Amino acid sequence: MSHAMARLWMYWEHYGKQKKIEFNNRAIRNHKSNFMSVNGKPLDRVYTPLKISKTTQFKGLNLCEYKKGEKHFVLIFYMKGHKNNRKFTVGRFNHNCPATRN
Question: Which of 51, 89, 98, 101 is 20 to 30 A from 79 (CA-CA)?
Answer without folding.
Answer: 51
